[in-house]
């Protein structure tokens, strides 16, 4: 840990005297109004950096730069785009430790996960770099009188708005396909975690991406975010964040008829039937809620266990949860670090009282820990019923709600009985049941006898209040591009 802290100081040096600026048309600039805000570390509440607090005028400058750059970027040969995106991936790999350390410090996420997240960011760029040459591919659909052909063209400058959970990886996941498709980008990172977005844009600049193709505008949702969603030159908004923010963005974008792609909240069930491999199910259930501080949209925050095995499962679970190592995010042994911010800590801990008031049991955790910073003990609620708030609302922390069920029908009703539908995890050795259950489970992504394992060509996204649209593979291009039909008379 001491070694890592010393290296962190080197990585933070540029921000100590300087500022996390915007990047508009290839230039590092403060907000035009001169306004700033501070980003702090959830480890000890210390100030990391002063950040540009942008308004509508900065967004306008960035959107104009993106519009001007689009005129050329859309026609850059696809193989050249491929090369530039690979160079960005190389740049990420070269600065992976810096990215991971800054992300840990800015967000509180543990290094054991963030070092992988930085490299996953590079993989996102490589994946879409390799697909760039086929971005414009279409088909021929001849009829007796017409030679019909289809092609795809990039939609134009797009806005990308990202949240504070794994902000680096998520930004790459949205921006890489946009660039591969031929779009230009204005990125508004989350105000709680602006540092790595700036590093990423710098890497892209160093990789030879032309000025204006990728612009970063820092600031708050209600001003910079809102202005981006309302700007007439921005043709689409790729948004990752809370469901209620998605709903606001849809309203804000209505006047300019924005195309939207939403990756929103979740209250994802992990359903354990009594015929499952219970040890594997236990490992996966723990991993899917207590890794990444539980600040993860795909986390399995509801554990549904069949009553015949619930007592044994619960006993093992409690022992494991009490054993999770909470600590400094840069300590390689740490499994759970501090939550992102005091505001979020207050939200998560408010559920401890809610759980008690509603009649659930706090079987592990249920309190903050540490003298400073936003630390909370990994928490398990048991004796919960499906309608309790702890079983319905996205808490977004290392907090698991366990609910027991008797029959498959009951499990399905409970699993589907929330407003969300992002992921589901099903544990059973009965293949027919797995087929039947997954067919009826209301979720965009489901894993059977597995934790969440991302495979980039597969579709990523949610149903119900968890999202609109899909990312991954060609689905990303469908969002960032327009299909065009041309019919030639024969
Ligand atoms: P948030 O909705 O509060 O903020 C996300 C971003 O939206 C930030 O950059 C914020 O500044 C901006 N924003 C806020 N109000 C805005 C407005 N009116 N107009 C435009 N932009 C606005 O979300 P958060 O708290 O940063 O992130 C956590 C949430 O993100 C959780 O609900 C989580 O489930 C969700 N999430 C979903 C996925 C997914 O793939 N489905 C992935 C990661 C996170």
TrEMBL record:
Entry superkingdom: Bacteria
Coiled-coil regions listed: none
UniProt entry keywords in alphabetical sequence: NAD, Oxidoreductase
Active site positions, chain numbering: 263
Domain Aldehyde dehydrogenase: 31-486
InterPro entries: Ald_DH/histidinol_DH, Ald_DH_C, Ald_DH_CS_GLU, Ald_DH_N, Aldehyde_DH_dom, DH_HpaE
Family to which this protein belongs: Belongs to the aldehyde dehydrogenase family.
Name of this chain's protein: 5-carboxymethyl-2-hydroxymuconate semialdehyde dehydrogenase
Organism of provenance: Psychromarinibacter halotolerans
Originating gene: hpaE
